[in-house]
Amino acid sequence: MAKKINLDALIPREDFDVRDSEPSPTNKSQLLKVTDLEQDSFFFGSIKKPDFQRETNEWDQERIVSLIQSFLGTDLIPAVILWKNEAGYTFVIDGAHRLSALAAWVNNDYGDGNITRSFYDSIIPDEQTDSAGKLRERINKTFGPYSDYKLAVRNPEKVKP
Question: Are 43 and 34 in contact (CB under 8 A)?
């Protein structure tokens, strides 16, 4: 059986009724850009999963690699459904696994990176770290890290074709 990849730390859970502080500013655009999934973007910092939604740890390497390849190949990826509550918080109603898989690639965090370590206070099981490392290695061999694509936009001569 294929090992599941734990991406649950990438989009934190929150109650729909959250009103405790000011939400982050958000873009009113209907279009989600890959740069919106970078750790320091306003969008990524403000999205939440409803507290009743299942954990995002059900996908294995194959599904994550396949989704990223579909994204890079401009294949159709089903819509992600977002909802903004009265206080202005943005919730992922449908598509948390898809969004988390893309965010994992963008932030080089497959359940063992900075976002995950911060979320779990640096306590990550060895099995999770092992699975994440194997996925990262596969992604880097198959189509490369997001950082190479980002670098290629400005300096194409510095990356492999």
Answer: no
pTM of this structure:
0.87
Decide if 94 contacts 83 (C-beta within 8 A).
no
State how far the Cα of 114 lies from the Cα of 83, in Å rounded to an integer.
27
What is the structure's pLDDT at 28? 60
Could you say which DSSP state residue 111 is in? S
* Segment holding 48, helix H or strand E: strand 47-50
Cβ neighbours for 47, distance < 8 A, ≥ 6 positions apart:
11, 82, 90, 91, 92, 99
Which residues lie below 8 Å from residue 159, measured CB to CB, with a gap of 6+? 144, 148, 151, 152
Q: Which residue has the higher pLDDT, 56 or 103?
A: 103
Q: How far apart, in whole angstroms, are the C-alpha atoms of residue 160 and residue 148?
A: 8
Residue 115: other Cβ atoms inside 10 A: 21
Neighbours of 97 (CB within 10 A): 22
Dig out the tokens for 51 from the structure.
């507290």
Cα(13)–Cα(11) distance, integer angstroms = 7
